[in-house]
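Pipeline run #58 for the internal structure catalog. This entry was flagged by the ingest filter as a single-chain record with no existing model, so it goes straight to prediction. Upstream metadata was stripped on purpose; only the residue string is passed forward. Reviewer on rotation: M.T. Logging verbosity set to normal.
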Amino acid sequence: MPERQAAPRTPTWWVWLAAWPVTAVFVLSNAATPLYVLWQRDIGFSQGTLTVVFAFYIVGLLGSLLVSGVVSDRLGRKPVLLPALALALAACAIFATATTVTALLVARLFTGIAVGAVVSAGMAAVTDVAGPERRRLAALLASCAMVFGAGLGPLLAGVLSETLPAPTVTVFAVEAVLLVTAVLAVLRMPVRRPAAPVRAPGCACPACRAATASISLWESRYSPPASPPRPSCCRSAPPC
C-alpha cells in the first residue's frame, strides 16, 4: 500500500495569528472597568449594583467554561469561536449605547460567555494550529495572549477616555475593530475539525473518561507491587 504523506506543517506566523482572537476578547473583558465611574455618574447606580454587574460576568464565564470545551471538541474550534466573537461584538454595541443598568448587565453577561468560550476553544485552537511538535510554543503564546489582552483592555480604555470625546462609545468602537480582525483570523485559521473521540465502554462522557484514565494512572504508580508467586513445591504448605 502507498505510504500516506504527512500533512504540511503550518507556518509559524499562523500560530501567532491564531492567538489573536484570545487577545482581542480579553481586551474586552477588562475594557469597561475604567468606565464604570462614568456610567455611575450618567445612569446613577450604587456600588451594590456595580457588584451585581460584575457578578453577571462571572455567571456567563462559568457557564461558558462548562459547555464550550466539550462543544469545541465535538464540533470543532470555529463553530465555538465565531459565535463567541459575535457575542463580543454585541457586547461592544450594548456597552457603547448603554443607558440603563439592564444594558450593562446584558453586556457583561455576553462578555463572560465570550471569554469562557475563548479560554476553552481559542486556546485549544492555538495548540491545534501549532501541532504536537510546537506544543510548548502554543501554550506560551496562548497564555501570553490572555495576559496581554487582559492588561491592554483597561490601559486602552483609560488612554482613550482621557484623550478622545465620548469615551464610552470610542473605546468600544475601537474594540469592535479589533474583534472584526479576530473574526477574519478565525475564518482563515487552518484548524481542522477534531476526529471523533473513541468512547470508553459504559460511558461517553469525556470527563468520565479522563477521570478513569487518571485513576488508572494513579493505581499503576502507587498500588503496592503484587507478591511473587510461590514455588510449586510450597503451594501446599501454609504461608510463613
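catalog note: The longest helix spans residues 101-130.
catalog note: The domain at 12-188 is CATH 1.20.1250.20 (Growth Hormone; Chain: A;).
status: ready for reviewer M.T.
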